[in-house]
Specification:
- The protein has one helix and eleven strands, in the order βββββββββαββ.
- By secondary structure, it is mainly β.
- The longest helix has 5 residues, at 98-102.
């Protein structure tokens, strides 16, 4: 079982930046960031696999950067040029099985951190 703890959310003005962190209790094969705004479905924001390959939702490409410190088992999401539509609860997700990673069917989830862009 992998525990995930997110941090770094907060209130920021449009155009500003935030960096989210997600500390994992053990090593993982893949990790990702998701978000869910009130009344909307959860959507994938970005993901990274064990080789360091990254993938982004079209809505955040060029503005957000996902990265991982393998030595610390910590995932990051650098968010720049934030927009009001980025307001959501952001969740970290992870898995240890390659097939589940390919399918982006993560088994482990954090509690979330709120990001509000005014």
């Amino acid at each position: 079982h992998v525990q995930l703890v997110e941090s770094g959310g907060g209130l920021v003005q449009a155009g500003g930046s935030l960096r989210l962190s997600c500390a994992a209790s053990a090593s993982t094969y893949c990790m990702g960031w998701f978000r869910q705004a009130p009344g909307k479905e959860r959507e994938r924001v970005a993901s990274i696999d064990s080789a360091g390959s990254t993938s982004y939702a079209d809505s955040v490409k060029g503005r957000f950067t996902i990265s991982k410190d393998n030595a610390k088992n910590t995932l990051y999401l650098q968010m720049n040029s934030l927009k009001p539509e980025d307001t959501a609860m952001y969740y970290c997700a992870a898995d240890v099985f390659p097939l589940r990673c390919v399918l982006r069917n993560y088994n482990y989830w954090g509690q979330g951190t709120q990001v509000t862009v005014s």
